[in-house]
Amino acid sequence: MTVVFSVNDSPLAGQEGKHVTANKIRERLDSEMNTNVAMRYETVGEGKFIVSGRGELQITILAENMRREGFEFGIGRPEVIVKEIEGVKCEPFEHLVVDLPADNAGTIIERLGRRKAEMKAMVPMGEGFTRVEFEIPARGLIGFRGQFLTDTKGEGVMNHSFLEFRPYTGNVESRQYGALISMEDGVALAYSLFNLQDRGVLFTAPQTKVYKGMIIGEHSRSNDLDVNPIKGKAQSNVRSSGADEAIKLVPPRDMNLERALEWIEDDELLEVTPISIRIRKRWLDPSDRKRYGAKK
User: Fold this and answer.
1) Which residues of 44-65 are buried (b: 16+ CB within 10 A; e: fewer)?
2) Can you list the positions of beta strands (E) in 71-139?
3) Residue 278 phi/psi, 5° resolution?
C-alpha cells in the first residue's frame, strides 16, 4: 500500500509544527527506512514522497511518530500497489476472516459484497457467533474497519493476510456520505455549529480555527456541501421571551489519525501537526474543485 506524504501548504501551515520543510521530512523518512525493512519511499516532485508499506496501520504508526516528534505534513488517501503481470493490470487480494455476532452477518456480507468481496466459507462458532471467510481486493478494505466495528457494535473481530495478485476488478464502493466544507476563514462559533448539526455529523468544536476548503463534518447525504461555520448571531435591541435559548451542541466526532485516514477520499488530504489533525480538500477553492470533478 502507498501513501503520499507532502509538505503542509494549508493557510494554517507552520503555526504548530517544529519541522515543516521538505528536507526535514526527507531526512526523517531516510532514518526510518534504515531501521524499517518493510517500508520504502521515493521522491515525486517538489516536497512529495510516496511511502510504501504493508498496510494502513504501519503507515499510520510512522505518521503518528513523526507527529509526536514535532513534524507537520500532509497525507493523501492510501492506495494499493498495482502491478502489470503478463500485460494484465493486477491488484493485491487479501484473505479476510471475520468473527462476528450471527445477527450482524447479513449486514457485513452485504457491505463486503459491494466492495467486491467473494465469500468462501461460513461456519457457526457457538454462543451466537459466526466465522465468515472472504477473498477481497485490498482496496475494498480501505475504510472498512470503522464501519465494521459500528455494524457489529464493537464485538466483531477481523483479520486479513495477503493472498496474491489478481486481475483488476474495477470500481469498489467507498465512502457513502459527502463532506461539510467550510467556505470561510476564521474561528468556528457555537451558534453556527448548532445550526449545522442537522446537516450531518460535525468533527469541529467551537473556537476551533477553520479555513476555506477545510472539512468540518460529514454530510448526511452523498454530496459535498459548502457551509459557513463562523457566522455569528445578529444582534439587535429587541428582546423577546424564548429568543435566547441555551445552545445545545452534540459532541463532535473524535477523528484520530487512523480513523481520519480511513475516511478521506481521493480529492482530500489529512493535515497532520503535533497539536491538530485536520481534514481538508486537496483544492481549497470551490471553482478548482468543480474543475477537478469535471475532469474526473
Assistant:
1) eeebbbbbbbebbeebbebbee
2) 73-75, 83-85, 88-101, 118-126, 129-137
3) -115, 145
Q: Grid coordinates representing 136?
A: 477481497
CA 263 vs CA 6, 94, 109, 145: distances in Å: 18, 20, 21, 10
Q: Which amino acid is at 63?
A: A
Q: Which of 264, 266, 262 is nearest to 296 (CA)?
A: 266
Cell of 255: 477523528
Query: How far apart, in whole angstroms, are the C-alpha atoms of residue 205 and residue 250?
Result: 10
**Adjacent-strand bridge partners of 178:** none
What's the CATH number for 83-167?
A: 3.30.70.240
φ/ψ of residue 228, rounded to 5: -115, 100
Write the pLDDT tens digit of every residue in 23-70: 999 999 999 999 888 899 899 878 899 999 887 888 889 999 999 999
CATH superfamily of 2-75: Elongation Factor G (Translational Gtpase), domain 3 (3.30.70.870)
Distance CA 93, CA 108 (A): 18
Distance CA 25, CA 19 (A): 8
What's the rounded Cα separation, in Å, for the pair 138 and 221? Answer: 26
Residue 258 C-alpha cell reads as 487512523
Q: At what angle do helices 22-35 and 56-68 cross, to 10 degrees?
A: 120
One-letter identity of residue 37: V
Q: Which part of the chain has CATH 2.40.50.250?
A: 179-295
The number of residues making up the chain comes to 296
Q: State the DSSP string of 246-285.
A: PP-PPPPP---HHHHHHH--TTEEEEE-SS-EEEEESS-S
Look up the pTM and report it. Answer: 0.83
Range list for CATH 3.30.70.870 in the chain:
2-75
Rounded CA gap, 73 and 14, in Å?
10
Give pLDDT, residue 54: 82
C-alpha cell at 203: 468533527
